[in-house]
Amino acid sequence: MNKPYAIIFFGFLAVIMGIGDDKTELIPSEIKLTIGFLAIGYGIYLIYRPKEKFTESSSTSERKKTDKKIRPSYVYLGIGVLTMKLTQYLITNNDNILSFWIIIIGIIGFSISLYGLKIFFKERREKKESGSIE
Fold it and tell me: Treating both helix axes as pointing N-terminal to C-terminal, what angle do 72-90 and 100-130 enclose, rounded to 10 degrees?
């Protein structure tokens, strides 16, 4: 997998899924947390690793491959999923009554995730129109 932001996103997802008790789950939460932190670390390494040095005679296509633009869609998707997951921990013993703030936080997380999806598909459309689809 050559996409560091996707690796970081799925690392955050694994960390989120690892939070909490694992009474009814097949995979223990410690393993999920470990895999999540390892994926986040590997994704950060892929972003900040030493880049290849090019000479003046290198083609522009090789230079474009090393110039990675930060994709904000992954950030918005991660924050939205984290916010929606937060509502699970706000519900107390009385599960029948939903608090006003739990509903608001869930709606905010859902809207941030939708905005991230909108940006993601916009980025893909721009890449497709420019001819540099991955």
Answer: 160
Residue 7 domain boundaries: 1-67
pLDDT tens digit string along 43-72? Answer: 888 887 766 665 555 555 555 554 455 677
Are 87 and 61 in a shared domain? no
pLDDT digits (tens, 9 = 90+) for 73-113: 888 888 888 888 877 776 666 655 667 777 888 888 899 89
Are both 58 and 76 inside the same structural domain?
Answer: no
The reply to whether 75 and 131 lie within a common domain is yes
Cβ(43)–Cβ(5) below 8 Å: yes
Cα–Cα dist 57/59, whole Å: 6
Asked if 19 and 51 touch (Cβ cutoff 8 Å), the reply is no
Q: pLDDT tens digit string along 106-126? A: 888 899 899 989 988 888 888
Q: Do 84 and 63 sit in the same domain of this protein?
A: no
C-alpha to C-alpha distances, 19 to 29, 50, 73, 121, nearest whole angstrom: 7, 33, 24, 30
Domain count, the chain: 2
Report the predicted TM-score, pTM, of the whole model to 2 decimal places: 0.46
